[in-house]
Design goal:
One of its GO terms (biological process) is xanthophyll cycle. This protein has 556 residues and is of the alpha+beta class. The chain is built from 15 helices and 18 strands.
Length: 556
């Protein structure tokens, strides 16, 4: 990641923890806690006499025998054994999605047409799993009964696992959908569409709010009916959609696939190991758990994480960045990194494949020159680059991002230190800094990064996609994974010396570079570079900058 590495998904095992404070005169027996209830914590001026930790399993996402049933796929912490052959067959099952958008409708993603956004989503689903098939139509074709595309749409809907309806408000289109789609499709989700359209999850109707969107007060209704698993899916999807970005649009579909159709490998950290996880934590990390719970910031981080979906990287990292502390780092280092109590695994994504630039200023790019491009303006300025915009909603949206690339004192060593601001969830503006070790990749212009971030190691593969000859701007792509957190990610950052967007004459070259990454310009987040006073910059004494193979004056 450009500025922060690890999306530590602590939620799966936070659900296993229950804290009991026993007074000297009495003790109370522990009661089960659900995800949405607050932790029981002792007063800060008193020490607990005892702490008991028991398991509460509420993850609804381990596959069971029934697909497309009424309830989400349920985990019982090992009480319901699922055969490996059944799981394997589910993982190979093709998932069919149909997207239906309002003709000519415009998205909030920098005014991109919804049809273009959904077609791009279909392409990006393939990066997760080749067996995810999504077909996109607009409702303008519904006015013609003779159009062969209508028959094609009907055929796709009859075989669909999910129908995603976006910005459909035409009364004739709504009538057609109600007539043709209600019975056959087990999962229907409607966004920014007519309230007359009905949402369905797992074959059961779920309410719609006045905006024609999931879900308003639906979560409260489901919880009153003891349907907490569905309520959790509803809330996760609704919150993700409201963030209005391409990653979260895809995430909405992945959550529903994982809950109601078949497991999604990238969301596997939703599946708790039950008592085995708990036993690992208590046996190996008891003191770290206690220290975390006694530390106000660490405790706030756990409470905050417990309100996030385990796979919601945006929500999770906001909690981590807001409340990071030595106690939280020690907690994560022990539970996740050292002992892998959740038994998770994640690999760096191999899609999309992004080729590096092969020439710079007319010459073949070599390893030393590629490193010099990273070093960039450091020496002339106090930083290598400033981030103008980024694609990943969890990590590229932080304000005032500075990049520091430099050669270390040890021969062949190379380092990257991002410096960035975080607006904490309590409204405080704070500076954060990370330190990555950087190794050359096999091909010049590619690099392997690694960092210990809040107790968890992340490994990333970076590519220099393009850099202007005058170093007026650059585009860097990254793919990464926090292995023991069970999560992987991709993104890209647009950089310049002053944090300003490249001028219009660079537009075609920039768009071409983004296309190599599989990114549309409307996916980029503009970084807020307005209030960046006194950044904690500087590099270690004895570090060096550009290599002797490139004249420093050429880089100015």
């Amino acid at each position: 990641m450009p500025c922060c590495a690890t999306q530590i998904s602590l939620n799966p095992y936070l659900l296993l923890l229950q804290i009991q404070h026993s007074s000297s005169s009495s003790s109370s027996s522990p009661s089960p806690r659900t995800r949405r209830r607050r932790w029981c914590c002792w007063p800060q001026n008193k020490k607990p006499r005892s702490i008991s930790i028991s398991k509460t399993i509420s993850s609804p996402h381990l596959p069971r025998l029934t697909l497309n049933g009424k309830s989400p796929i349920v985990s019982c912490g090992g009480d319901e054994a699922v055969s490996s052959s059944l799981l394997a067959s589910q993982l190979e099952r093709e998932v069919r999605v149909v997207g239906l958008v309002g003709e000519g409708s415009i998205s909030p993603l920098k005014g991109a047409p919804w049809e273009e956004v959904m077609l791009h989503t279909a392409k990006r689903l393939k990066w997760i799993d080749e067996s995810f098939e999504m077909h996109v139509f607009n409702d303008g074709l519904l006015g013609s009964t003779d159009d062969p595309m209508v028959k094609n749409l009907q055929r796709e809907i009859s075989n669909a696992d999910i129908l995603m309806i976006v910005a459909v408000n035409n009364s004739d289109s709504v009538e057609w959908i109600l007539k043709n789609c209600g019975a056959n499709v087990p999962n229907i989700i409607c966004f920014d569409s007519s309230p007359s359209l009905k949402n369905k999850l797992g074959g059961s109707v779920v309410g719609t709010d006045s905006r024609g969107t999931l879900f308003s007060k639906v979560t409260e209704i489901l919880q009153k009916n003891n349907d907490n698993a569905t309520a959790e899916v509803v809330q996760t999807v609704s919150e993700a959609w409201d963030r209005r970005n391409s990653d979260d649009i895809r995430f909405c579909l992945l959550v529903i696939i994982n809950a109601y159709i078949r497991p999604v490998s990238s969301l596997k950290n939703l599946r708790s190991k039950g008592f085995k996880t708990l036993n690992c934590m208590v046996t190996n990390c008891g003191s770290q758990i206690l220290n975390c719970l006694l530390d106000p910031n660490c405790r706030k981080a756990l409470q905050c994480l417990n309100r996030c979906s385990p796979v919601d990287q945006v929500c999770n990292y906001r909690c981590i960045a807001s409340y990071e502390s030595p106690s939280l780092e020690a907690f994560s280092l022990c539970v996740l990194q050292k002992h892998n109590c959740l038994e998770l695994d994640a690999k760096i994504p191999d899609k999309p494949y992004v080729p590096p630039m092969f020439k710079f200023r007319g010459n073949d790019l070599d390893h030393e020159t590629a490193e010099d491009l990273f070093v960039g303006w450091l020496g002339t300025l106090d930083w290598s680059w400033r981030v103008v915009a980024g694609q990943n909603p969890a990590y590229d949206q932080f304000p005032c991002q500075y990049q520091l690339f430099y050669r270390g004192k040890a021969r062949g060593s190379f380092w990257y230190e991002p410096v960035f601001q975080v607006m904490t969830l309590e409204g405080k503006l704070v500076w954060r800094r990370r330190r990555y070790r950087v190794k050359r990749g096999r091909i010049p212009g590619t690099f392997n990064f690694s960092v210990l971030d809040n107790g968890v190691v992340s490994k990333e593969f970076w590519t220099i996609v393009d850099v202007a000859d005058d170093l007026g701007w650059g585009l860097f792509h990254y793919s990464g994974a926090a292995e023991v957190a069970g999560q992987s990610y991709t993104g890209a950052v647009l950089v310049s010396p002053d944090g300003e967007y490249p001028n219009e004459k660079e537009k075609l070259r920039l768009v071409s570079a983004l296309e190599k990454c599989g990114i549309k310009e409307w996916e980029l987040y503009k970084v807020d570079n307005c209030s960046c006073e006194d950044p904690p910059l500087g590099i270690p004494a004895g570090s060096s900058l550009h290599s002797s193979s490139v004249e420093i004056k050429e880089l100015k």
